[in-house]
Design goal:
Layout: H1 3-31, E1 34-40, H2 50-66, E2 75-81, H3 86-99, E3 104-107, H4 111-121, E4 127-129, E5 142-144, H5 149-152, H6 154-164, E6 168-174, H7 177-192, E7 196-203, H8 211-220, E8 224-228, H9 232-243, E9 251-254, H10 259-265, E10 273-277, H11 286-299, H12 308-327, H13 332-339, E11 343-346, E12 349-354, E13 357-368, E14 371-381
Helix pairs in contact: 2-12, 3-4, 9-10, 12-13
Amino acid sequence: MNRRKFLVSSLATATMGSTFAAALARKASAADPVRVGVLIPMSGPAGLFGPSCQNCANMAANEINAKGGIDGRRVELVFADVGGPPADATQAALKLWKGEKVDAFVGMHDSAVRAALTGLFKGQVPYIYTPVYEGGECSPGTFVLGETPQQQLAPVILWFNKERGASKWYLIGNDYNWPRDTNKAAKEYINRFGGSVVGEEYLPFTVDNFDSSLAKIKDSGANAVLITLVGGASVGFSRAYQSFGLADQAMRLGTLIEENTLLGIGAENSQNLYSSAGYFRNIDTPAAKEFAARYTKAFGADAAVLNALGESCYEGITFLDALATKAKSYDVKKMDRSSLGLTFSSPRGTSTMIDRHVSQDIFLAQADGVDFKVIETFKNVGPGNNCG
């Protein structure tokens, strides 16, 4: 073989080898699972939400995998407990990101942890934040599915004013950014609709005696109380509230009181108690009923009770599926562009993403024993101006 033929033959062989290697790499890449870091509280004040969050996330992943995965790649969930201080949560997330090489994160946790995580991620990895929160999160690569005060409070406070005569509000919450920022928005709505705020206070997560606060509420003449306490604090407050004889004086509205919290409060302590959220387990729609039936089939009748926070983890995984499928990438910039106007369905109904937040239906429910009965639906409520 002359030199020219040898070079042509060698080049062809090298090209074929390179093409074959690239094909193998693509095949291997397609076979690799999509690793999703799921950050939920399994301990601490919000620990009671953890089991339902874990169940719902696993349920979503199993359903996606049964349909062939995300773009042909199986979904693999890696969980971390972020129920402690923000510093501990960032270390747990860093381990998953750099050590476990996750492709994206789904988080259901408090706002203090979210602020720490956006500082850690700096828009380098997709991060889907699912729970109710105070609004205003605009970090690159962060996609928010949870309800904002504009959604949970603006239509609901007006309804309370017109339908229940609520005019004097007392605001009580735990001492961190979600309750404070939520109540800042609440005060604007209360004043706009002709009411007044007669008291406001913030308590540490460790509080276990509410006598002083209940005496203040009674003396204030409030006929409505907005509760932004978390988990165990919300349970303890509502139990003491009923025994203090305040249920007849002032109705209670919670924006983080879901089915698990209500179960802890107890039927005997739930008089005149209301909750505002984008999901309750007994929403009377085909999608919600089917979801509840699948949940019971998957985990049994004795599983952690379905609720808005647990369901939000299911929604976080399924939203990642919709977004990654549209973007055909886990690159943050491509996902940011693909998220604009993305409409997707969930047990809540149909939602549309606007500025990395979603418009959605909001339900107002009244406690009926240890369950909630939806009494009003506000259709397709926008999230407000969070990134303007």
